[in-house]
Amino acid sequence: MALIGPAVLCVFGLSFLWAWMIERRRDYLLLLAAAPALFAIAVAVQVFFWPASVPANALLSGLFYTVAVQIAAEAVLRRSGKRLGRVWHACAFIAVMGGLWYFAYVAPNLLARVYLQNFGYGLVLLVASLHITPLMRGRPVDRVLFWVLFAFALHFFPRTILTIGLEAPGDLRVFQDSLFWQALHLSLAVLGAALATALLAATLSDVIDDLRRERDSDGLTGLLNRRAFEQRAGAMLSVAGEAPCVLLVCDLDHFKRVNDSHGHAAGDEVLSAFGRLLRRVSREKDLVARIGGEEFAILLPGATQAAGLVLAERVRAGLSGLVFTFAPGGGAVTASFGIAERRSGDALSELVSRADRRLYQAKARGRDRAVADDCAEIPQPGPAQAAAVSTLPIRAPR
User: The CATH number of the domain where 131 resides is what?
Assistant: First the structure.
C-alpha cells in the first residue's frame, strides 16, 4: 500500500515532465516532475529498508522527503512569480536534516523524528500557501489551487497527532504496519493527487491564457490588435447603455518617411515607443489598440469629448519628448488625432467612422493636432480640459 501513493504521483510527475518538454520556459514544471520522483525514492528507501542501519535509513529517506517537499513548494511559488529564496530553503533544510541526524544518532527517538518531519513539511507547505494568497483574487482555478495546497499543508498537523499520539512503536517493522504509516501514505496519495491535478489544471489555464494574449496582442507594441479591439469594444458598448464614451483614433504623421529614410528598424522603434506611451497615459480600463500599420485607437469608457482632447494633447506632448536612436535631437515624430464621442444608439462602426473623419480633418489642417466631433481643434488644453485631466490618471510605467 505504501507504494500506491508514490506510483500515482509519479504518473503526475511524468505528465509534468511532458508538459515541460513542450513549454520549457515554464521551469516550475521540471521541478514538479522531480518532486514525485524524489518522494518515490524516499518511500522505496523506507519500504525496502536500504540501507539496513536504522539511523542511516532515517537520514537517507529524510533527505529525499525533505528535498521533494521543498522542490514542490518552490515550484508552486515560481508558477505565481514568487520564491522563498535560497536562504530560507537552506535554513529549512538544515533545521529538518539537523534534527533528524540528532534524533537518529545522538539521541535516537522515532517519535521525535516523526513529529519533526511531519510538522516541518507541513510548515514549509503552509508558508508556500500563504505566499500565494493573492491567487484568491484571481481565476477560479487559482483559488482552487490555493485551497488544495493550504489543506495539504494543514493536514500534516492533525493527522500526525491523531494517528501516532505520544508513543511510537519501537520496532520499525511494526511501525510500517501502524495506523500512522497507513494514514500517512493514504493521505499523501489522495491529497497529493488533488494538488497535482490542481497544478495541471492551473498550468493548462496558463497556457490557454498565453495563447489568448498572443492571439489578441500586437506583437510589436504589446497593445490589442484590431480583432481583439473590435471584439472587446463592441462588448463594452453593448453593456454601457447610455453612459458616455469617447473614441480616439490616432495616426503617426509621415510614418512612411521614417521607414524610407531610416529603415524598417527605425519604424519598429517608433511604433514600439508609441505603444508604450499610449499604455502609460491611458487608464487601466481603457482599450488601447494598434488597428493598422501606424494607426492606433483608444476607447475611453465613462469619458467625454473634453477628456478625449486632453488625452490627445497628453499623447502629443509625450511624443514630442521621445528620443529615438535615428533622431538624437528628439521631436522627429508627430501624430494626428480624430475624436468622436458616442451618441445615443451608436454602434462601434459608427463611432469609428466619425473618429476617422475627424482624423482626416486633422491631417488636412496640417497634422500634429487633434480634431473632435464638433470640428473643434484644441492644440493646448484650456481650463475645462485641465479639469478633465483628473478623470484620466496616468498609468504607472510598465
Answer: 1.20.1070
Q: How confident is the model at residue 138 (pLDDT cuts 50, 70, 90)?
A: confident
Residue type, 164: I
Is 27 within the bounds of a domain? yes
Residue tagged 535615428 (cell numbers): 326
Domain boundary among the residues 184, 216, 248 is at 216
What cell numbers appear for 153 in the block? 499543508
**What Rg do the C-alpha atoms of the chain give, in angstroms?**
30
- Joined together, the cell numbers standing for residue 27 give 521551469
Q: Do residues 299 and 245 make contact, with C-beta atoms less than 8 angstroms apart?
A: yes
Q: Which residues contact 89 (CB under 8 A, 6 or more apart)?
A: 70, 74
Among candidate residues 74, 230, 294, 313, the one labeled active-site is 294
Look up residue 229 and give its amino acid. Answer: F
Distance separating alpha carbons of residues 32 and 105, to the nearest angstrom: 32
Residue 108 is which amino acid? P
Greater confidence (93 vs 238) lies with: 93
Coil, helix or strand at residue 311: helix
Q: Is the pLDDT of residue 111 over 80?
A: yes
On whether the CB atoms of residues 340 and 354 are closer than 8 A, the answer is yes
Nearest to 339 by CA among 232, 275, 240, 250: 250
| pLDDT in the model for residue 241 | 78
Residue 242 is a catalytic residue:
no
User: Is 398 a member of any domain?
Assistant: no
What type of residue sits at position 99? G
| Of 216, 245, 268, the domain-final residue | 216
pLDDT, one tens digit per residue, over 291-313 is 999 999 999 999 999 999 999 99
In 3D, which of 253, 244, 312, 259 has the Cα closest to residue 282?
A: 312
pLDDT digits (tens, 9 = 90+) for 13-51: 999 999 999 888 899 999 999 999 999 999 999 888 889
Give 107's DSSP letter: S
- d(CA 37, CA 34) in angstroms, rounded, equals 5
In a domain, residue 221? The reply is: no
Q: Is residue 87 within a helix (H) or strand (E), and if so which, with residue range?
A: helix 86-101
CA distances from 103 to 21, 58, 122, 235 (A): 41, 10, 19, 65
The span from the CA of 68 to the CA of 32, in Å, is 9
